[in-house]
UniProtKB/TrEMBL annotation, chain B:
Family per record: Belongs to the TrpA family.
Enzyme class, spelled out: lyase
Active site: 49, 60
Protein name: Tryptophan synthase alpha chain
MF terms in GO: tryptophan synthase activity
Recorded catalytic activity of this chain's protein: (1S,2R)-1-C-(indol-3-yl)glycerol 3-phosphate + L-serine = D-glyceraldehyde 3-phosphate + L-tryptophan + H2O
Chain's role: The alpha subunit is responsible for the aldol cleavage of indoleglycerol phosphate to indole and glyceraldehyde 3-phosphate.
Gene designation: trpA
Recorded metabolic or biological pathway in which this protein acts: Amino-acid biosynthesis; L-tryptophan biosynthesis; L-tryptophan from chorismate: step 5/5
Record key words, sorted: Amino-acid biosynthesis, Aromatic amino acid biosynthesis, Lyase, Tryptophan biosynthesis
Subunit: Tetramer of two alpha and two beta chains.
Length: 406, 267
């Protein structure tokens, strides 16, 4: 499919109906169509509205704490003996991850649209916390759907959401993880369409979500591009970010898509290993299909039923991936390697010990791939890695995995 | 003329309305389904909607979700449902059969493979919940070439221009979802449904079936007075769920409910 998007032309995906080549689109039940249309019109209007953008920028600066630093991990770079590694410190944002960039944006949109009730799905709980946070600030009712399995393994974030005034609804259907939380949030939305705004946390869902969430997250890449030019005196040679749905990765990649010298690596979760089938890597080992309102790579069986996924990190435990990543893979603009649970833990410990930074298990997948990539590159080359979140929420999982009790 | 078009024409000529039961294929176990379909025809069903189980039924309420999960536990997916349809046709060549489900199983089978399989099974219509008319062109073309109807959903908030779009690409009938929300939710506001049907009818001459909120003979009678067809799903599946230890009892209760609806609609 490389012929349909000649690399080097200005990238302007998606089309008016949300298509990235064959991917994306709007695949929802008729009951949702009017809400999607209303959202799309509001989004197209406000994203070009100077007052909206000014308010968003002010919130990102004063409430989220942007710009986040770009940090040269000198000791780790030296230790790995190859490229210079720069970390984009999304872990330093308010609430501890990149998720808040998007929830601040969508919440402002909800306010402009006169919605009084916010719903969200969450996997690791980071998006749920980021949503509950902005809902508290704006005084909006907030309901967060979370798979019952995730509720158990991310208890700390569940408590944070409750403190923030949100109602957390454990979802007991299907595999009881992120995909089922998304199903339940969509069901809530069709039932309460008049007063409710659904804040999707990743670059999936029906159009305009994949484009809208990307646009709110692209602040990561815009800052990183400027900071890298300032600090390293040139554009990076490679970008690395983990991919579940893929919002932190697309946020970093998007402003670099037309810079063809910048390689892009989106790291999927290989769980116990691709060969075991117990993984969450649709781009590595899935096939195109339709789920949650868009066409993309999925993990599905021969009957088209969605296969249960596995990853040590709840935030990557999702059978689909944002449609724009599917497109970037097909046209060869980005590569999508994968990292096992075990390797991710090595990445986690390496960054913690070498730089005194404890990364989230999701981000640890990007760290682990960086450990493979950096030594293959020259010392004058630069990798920008998205440190998408901090690891505090994962202490319990890691202690359990490593047999440690306090 | 397709079986669906012929059926609705025949009903119209005799002044009757279509009774359209929905059950999930393979619930509570695979062998239950085909005999149940025949029994439903005997009890007065004019058209049957057969649900294809899907792992992620986003537009369905808990009752149909659980039906899907029970069927999937027996590995009943799209391919198995097509063999059930084929088996049903062996002894019933007249009752229109519609497959209702989600798009991903069709995507994975491939549109052309799916259209061929549906034709081989002699299924009359396909209702794909998450395939709106804007995205349906490729699939509809292949189905239409084979004389298979693509049925679309209408919602209370569907705009007139979208109804006309569905009129263009859809055929057989349109399925009006009379409530905002998921299947099995809430109850019916007859005056509101009547207003909406008037608006729908001014934009299309396709027959319109009404579902969501049809629970008993009384609601069936009310809907039959204003629509071309009455769709009943969750109320039937609730009978299955209430009798998981005695599926024959579920069958009897489903037949009884359908008969009472039939009678209420005809008198």
């Amino acid at each position: 499919m490389t012929d349909t998007y000649p690399l080097g032309d200005k990238y302007d995906m998606p089309d008016a109906r949300g298509h990235f080549g064959p991917y994306g689109g709007i695949f929802v039940a008729e009951t949702l169509m009017p809400a999607i249309t209303e959202l799309n019109l509001a989004y197209q209007r406000y994203i070009k509205d100077p007052d909206f953008i000014a308010e968003l920028d002010a919130d990102l600066r004063d409430y989220v704490g942007r710009p986040s630093p770009l940090y040269h991990a000198q000791r780790w770079s030296q230790h790995l003996g190859g490229a210079q590694i720069y970390l984009k410190r999304e872990d330093l944002n308010h609430t501890g991850a990149h998720k808040v960039n998007n929830t601040v944006g969508q919440a402002l949109l909800a306010k402009r649209m006169g919605k009084t009730r916010i719903i969200a799905e969450t996997g690791a709980g980071q998006h749920g916390v980021a949503t509950a946070t902005v809902a508290a600030r704006l005084g909006l009712e907030c309901v967060v759907y979370m798979g019952a399995v995730d509720v158990a393994r991310q208890a700390l974030n569940v408590y944070r959401m409750k403190l923030l005034g949100a109602t957390v609804v454990p979802v007991e259907s299907g595999s009881k993880t992120l995909k089922d939380a998304l199903n339940e949030a969509l069901r809530d939305w069709v039932t309460n369409i008049d007063n409710t705004f659904y804040i999707i946390g990743t670059v999936a869902g029906p159009h305009p979500y994949p484009a809208m969430v990307r646009d709110f997250q692209a602040v990561i890449g815009r800052e990183a591009r400027r900071q890298c030019l300032e600090q390293a005196g040139k554009l990076p040679d490679a970008l690395v970010a983990c991919v579940g749905g893929g919002s932190n990765a697309i946020g970093l990649f998007y402003p670099f898509i037309d810079d063809l010298g910048v390689k892009m690596y989106g790291v999927e979760a290989a769980g116990d290993g691709i060969a075991t089938g117990r993984h969450s890597a649709p781009l590595s080992a899935g096939r195109p299909g339709v789920l949650h309102g868009n066409r993309t790579y999925l993990m599905a069986d021969d009957d088209g039923e969605i296969i249960e996924t596995h990853s040590i990190s709840a935030g990557l435990d999702y059978p689909g991936v944002g449609p724009e990543h599917a497109w970037l893979k097909d046209i060869g603009r980005a590569e999508y390697p994968n990292i096992t649970d075990e390797e991710a833990l090595q990445g986690f410990h390496a960054l913690t010990k070498m730089e005194g930074i404890i990364p989230a298990l999701e981000s640890s997948h990007a760290m682990a791939y960086t450990m493979k990539l950096a030594p293959t590159m020259r010392k004058d080359q630069v990798i920008v890695v998205n440190l998408s979140g901090r690891g505090d929420k994962d202490m319990h999982t890691i202690m359990q995995r490593e047999g440690i009790s306090l | 003329m397709s079986r669906l078009a012929a059926k609705f024409a025949e009903l119209k000529a005799s002044g009757r309305k279509a009774l359209i039961p929905f059950i999930t294929a393979g619930d509570p176990y695979p062998e239950f389904t085909v005999p149940m379909l025949h029994e439903m025809v005997k009890a007065g069903a004019d058209v049957i909607e057969l649900g294809v189980p899907f792992s992620d039924p986003m537009a369905d309420g808990p009752v149909i979700q659980r039906a899907s999960e029970r069927a999937l536990a027996h590995h009943v997916g799209l391919r198995k449902v097509l063999t059930m349809a084929m088996e049903f046709r062996k002894t019933d060549q007249t009752t229109p059969l519609v497959l209702m489900g989600y798009l991903n199983p069709i995507e994975i089978m491939g549109y052309e493979g799916f259209a061929n399989a549906v034709q081989r099974a002699d299924v009359d219509g396909v209702l794909t919940v998450d395939l709106p008319p804007e995205e349906s062109e490729d699939c509809v073309k292949l189905l239409r070439e084979r004389g298979i109807d693509q049925i679309f959903l209408l919602a209370p908030n569907t705009t007139p221009d979208r109804i006309r779009k569905m009129h263009e690409v859809g055929s057989g009938y349109l399925y009006y979802v009379s409530l905002k929300g998921v299947t099995g939710a809430g109850h019916l506001d007859t005056a509101d449904v009547q207003d909406k049907l008037q608006m729908i009818k001014s934009n299309t001459d396709l027959p319109v079936g009404v579902g969501f909120g049809v629970k008993d003979a009384e609601t069936a009678r009310t809907i039959a007075a204003i629509a071309d067809g009455v769709v009943v799903g969750s109320a039937l599946i609730s009978k299955v769920e209430a009798n998981l230890d005695d599926p024959e009892q579920a069958k009897r209760e489903i037949i009884e409910l359908l008969k009472s609806m039939r009678q209420a609609m005809d008198h």
